[in-house]
Fold this sequence. Notes:
- The chain is 22% helix and 31% strand.
- By secondary structure, the protein is α+β, with helices and mostly antiparallel strands.
- β10 and β11 (200-204) form a beta hairpin.
- α5 (280-288) packs across α6.
Amino acid sequence: MHHNLTAQPPLAAQPLRMLRNLLRNTCNRRIWNTDPDHPRIQLRLSPPVALHNLARPDHRVLQSSNERSTPVPRANHRNAQFICLHKTDVTVSKEERNRLMPAKKTAAKADPKNNAPVEIIKGKLRIRSGKPATLISSRTVYQGPLFRIDKEEIREPQAGLVTRDIVRHGGSVVILAVDDAKKRDPLVVLERQYRRAAGQFLYEVPAGKIDPNEDRLAAAKRELAEETGFRAKKWTKLVRYYASPGFLAEWMQVFLAEGLTPGETSFDEDERLEVMLVPLSELLRLIDKGEILDGKTLIAAMFYARLRAGSKRR
Length: 314
């Protein structure tokens, strides 16, 4: 589309209002933007230049914030047409934009997935576990001697209707066995065991599964005696955690076992363990070096070390 621009007077001699009308009539679409730092109208060419005040007598343009201003020919209608044909941005003040292009009454809704609010916590964080998701359907797709896998269709509070594969396990206990907690550097019971899933030997604290209808503390005492031969006089709950809540429903309880006495072991048929007593300081050193890779051992040892440090400060 061609516009008859020859009948218009020189652009620099017109008020800014006539300039805006000219640009709107010349361009085939509106290209107004908001820039509160520049209250006057701006035109950006290629390479980018800006006419901060077209009505100034010297008709100079500022190419960029770090370049010198350079004299240019008088602005005219051909320049304005060139700007529009090349889809160059035209910037006006926020007030001018709102006057020329009023905001739509119905604003587009923000996508919650791409614009999740970030909350800054000041003070204590209140833990809100929420309610369980609504179960629509569930079927077991695998059943083994240790666990089963269920495919579930659920309605989650945030994701809506989804399908999840969940590993169901009877639960496990973890034992941090310490020979004498009153010592400055107590000895901790560790096991060296080959783990096929990891493809290597791992150094771990004792742990094991809970038998059907078995109490967790009773399971912890049984596992410690079977795997290491040790019995403990004092038992304390330390912490519990979900090992991999993305797909594993099992949560693990860590117990602190103190006052150890040696005894006979009773390994399972598929267990081959090397049992050792390691100073707590050495275990923490290996953790710092990244040589302890077992998750339950990391959690148990570091939580216990934090508790000891806190009790010493008190």
